[in-house]
Amino acid sequence: MFMEVEVVSIPFMRPYFSESGRKNIHAGIEEILQSGRLMMGPYAEKLEQSFRDQVSLPHAISVTTCTTALQICLQYFDVAGGEVLVPSGSFVTDVSAVQWSGADAVLVDMNSQTLSFDMEDLERKVSSRTKAIIWVHLAGIMSSEHGQIVSFARERGIPLIEDCAHALGASVDGVQAGALGDAACYSFYPTKIITSGTGGMIATRDSALDRYAREIRLFGRDAETGKVGRLGNDWFLDEIRACVAYFQMCELDEFLAHRRASAGHYDQILRNHPGLRLLDVPNGNLPSYYQYSVFLDAAINREELIKNLKDRHGVVAKEIYLPTHKETVFQHLDDGALKQTEETLARSLCLPMFVGLGNQEVEEVAHALTTEIRQLL
Ligand SMILES: Cc1ncc(COP(=O)(O)O)c(C=O)c1O
After folding, report:
1. Pick from 209, 233, 249: which residue ends a domain?
2. pLDDT tens readout for residues 212-250
């Protein structure tokens, strides 16, 4: 019996470890194994320091994942029994973390230009029950309406949690993603800007959150008395993953430069191409380009395009996400009016984007895309 072999010449993403990065990681893991210190050691501290330096914030706390980072922040802001405003076009754990924290998620529609909140819907959805806002920098692009979003939260005294899972190293007018809100959460999942397999970080200027997160991630144990004074969990990042993440972080500038160069190359080839809308990135806005996404004209059948790209060119492309309210478990959150999210994501197409993607590969993908679009228009 013959197995069907799938030929993929250009993957959607691939984690990247440079030769020197791998050497450092091997040596670091050897050092950890020899020392016997597998948790709460020097690599977690070095990783946290690298985040404090990167985001220019006084506190950074390493944790198991971005999802647990979000949950710790939500618990700290005491959302249980209230509502949390969450974008309807994002990753599902933004909503799961809210539900695990004992609050109701209220989905907010998307602005198709910024991929962030639709400000009118944000106004409509806020209420006296709103206990926090989760603001996602989708695809690694910060909204040009960042000033309005921050003011919206500040004026109402609502904690603003930045989900920076896609946005490590992104900035707007020189301010890093994560430094605008009250707390920021980062992910080291395999597809992310840096990875340690899994892993996460909270960054904040709030010293009480710093202390709270340090206790919650380590069983709820008070750092001074050693007593378990809170209901905690085991959500600390172990030394081996902290070591991997730290050496990835040492190369962050190179990783970002690579992603930005690939995005610039895609832009150059695809700009003004019939059937496509590219994202408009304003001056002063420096995305991390976790994803490179284009938006297709309604006349183009996206599923057929995705299939043709894969079958005829070996190019893997995908939608950004399914809207959260279209996932089975979250259908009850659909208020019937999240139309911009549905339309924007239905037309979205993310092209291969990862460190190590060559210029020639970018050209091949862009050529495959324009060839297939011409046939479908
Ligand atoms: C926007 C967003 N938030 C949160 C997460 C969750 O991150 P983690 O897997 O580290 O929990 C992800 C994806 O993995 C994500 O894409």
Report:
1. 249
2. 999 999 999 998 999 999 999 999 999 999 999 999 999
